[in-house]
Amino acid sequence: MSVQEYELINEDMEDESCLRKYRKRCMQDMHQRLSFGPKYGYLSELQNGEQFLEAVEKERKTTTVIVHIYEDGIKGCEALNSSLSCLAAEYSTVKFCKIKASNTGAGDRFSTDVLPTLLVYKGGELVSNFISVTEQFSEEFFAVDVEAFLNEYGLLPEKEIPALGNGNLDEQEVE
Fold this sequence. Notes:
Structural class: alpha/beta
Protein name: Phosducin
Number of helices: 5
Number of strands: 5
CATH architecture of the domain at 44-153: 3-Layer(aba) Sandwich
InterPro entries: Phosducin, Phosducin-like_reg, Phosducin_N_dom_sf, Phosducin_thioredoxin-like_dom, Thioredoxin-like_sf
Radius of gyration: 23 Å
Order of helices and strands: HEHEHEEEHH
Organism: Podarcis muralis (Wall lizard)
Family: Belongs to the phosducin family.
Strand content: 15-25%
Helix content: 25-40%
CATH class of the domain at 44-153: Alpha Beta
Pfam family, one: Phosducin
Distance between the termini: 29 Å
CATH topology of the domain at 44-153: Glutaredoxin
CATH superfamily of the domain at 44-153: Glutaredoxin
């Protein structure tokens, strides 16, 4: 192999590497432009009625807010909190919150026989409410059951593409 042939092959490999890096950067930029709105990714604990109103009313009109009203020691509340924590990680564009019924300022409206309750808001408006929501599930339920239930009512967006979700793409993945 001559020096000229070696240099040509080496230049081709460098060009390919530059193209891969360029494609990766373009994909990340495109994903960032298409990711509308804030990202949450966790189940937020609301401390009082004022925080509850802020969480619902001061959110973008396009953001879905799911609020779990619960009380410690009520059947299904702990499992629903765990399920919503998992879903919050998967649906980062949805704002998931929880608040104890006794902290809402309207605790008399939430007796133990209506808990756990899920309220779903969009644009500050209540779009769905599910009283004693765990009655919809079997004795033992998981995040996939809650996800299927919410999807049945069209309350969750489509999942993000995992490969682009965090913006990290290995160079080998981009072709």
